[in-house]
Amino acid sequence: MAGTISRLPDVGWMLRPLTQIPGVRHAVVVSEDGLRMGHGSAEGLTGEVPELGVAEAESLAAACAALTVTSQSTVSLLFGEEAGVRQLMIESDGGFVLFTSAGQGASLGVATGTEADVGLVAQQMQVLVARIGAHLSSRPREQISTP
Prior knowledge:
Strand content: 15-25%
CATH superfamily: Dynein light chain 2a, cytoplasmic
Number of domains: 1
Distance between the termini: 6 Å
Radius of gyration: 16 Å
Mean pLDDT: 84
Largest sheet: 5 strands, antiparallel
CATH topology: Beta-Lactamase
């Protein structure tokens, strides 16, 4: 019996409220196994990455999944296996990257410039997840049985 590969729905259009926040540059939704489910960029950006293309969004999705797994290992070590990672924040010279759980099997990532109100961005990420989290979820992959 051969397995089937299904295309994940593109949920990039749902990220528009985030990319309209001042200072937000890019947003991406990723499955827990690192697949891009959707992405968006703020309008009129300049600089190193003026628009997040599919290739960059797929790389960011893979990095997000790796960071989530790594941080989950750290949290489990410190607080026990039942403690889940809710949100991550990385600060760099160029800005911030925030990741948050976005429903079952999915994460939401947002990249900002240094001028962004990170508290507002994190709060709006939670609002978006609460409002449309079911659409941001990714079901676990089905196991392929071998004959």
